Amino acid sequence: MRPTVLVHGFGTSRHVWRRVLEGVDALAVDLIGFGDAAEAGRAGQTVEEMAQALAATLRGAGAGPSRVVAHSMGGKVALLLAARHPELVSELLLIAPSPPTPEPMEPEGRAKLRAAYGNRDALTAQYHDITHQSIPERDFGQLIADGLRASHDAWNAWTDVGSREDISGELGGLKLPITVLYSEDDPAISPDTIRSEVLARLPGARAVPIHGSGHLIPLEDPQAVLRLLAAKETP
């Protein structure tokens, strides 16, 4: 069985996968600037730097060619990982991924996101805004804790640098299976953005739309992720 690696999104950590890990054996990792890797965050860090650090983490763990399951910001990082280090990735399962092109976001939205750093009330409002399903209290508390301990440099770097980068020119050589799971009700990365800026730039990718979840699918609808993983395990 191929190893499965879980990569979190912006502001969160490997703990965002807790409910998924109840049903699958996988390695959940922290991207630089977040979770236990918060101190490694750097001002202006790029998607490339995050992908390089992720590659080093996977090599250090001896993961080998892996199914990489990546959420939100992690989706963009995982795409570049697969393009730059194809020997590490056998398959991509992208969950509500940030697009490989600049993420559509109004200046006011970027300013609001930037201002949420280190602010418990703002983080609470932010997570209520981007979710539809109730999140267990334990997991919601972890979201806030992860937001509070994230690197300030990494937080601003994604908001002002990484989310604006265009890595789409590097994806033409991808030959591996790619599946994109997204919610038609996602208020953070719209289904239109998924269709026009993710699926349209990944010819051959399989689209799996769901309904009823907001952006935090791993916590709001972990069964959707587990069904996808189980289906992909079937010979």
Automatic annotation (TrEMBL):
MF (Gene Ontology): hydrolase activity
Keyword Iron on entry: no
Stretches assigned to the AB hydrolase-1 domain: 5-227
Xref: InterPro entries: AB_hydrolase_1, AB_hydrolase_fold, Carboxylesterase_BioH
Keyword annotations of the record: Hydrolase
Name by which UniProt lists this protein: Alpha/beta hydrolase
Natural source organism: Deinococcus radiopugnans ATCC 19172
Upper lineage: Bacteria, Thermotogati, Deinococcota, Deinococci, Deinococcales
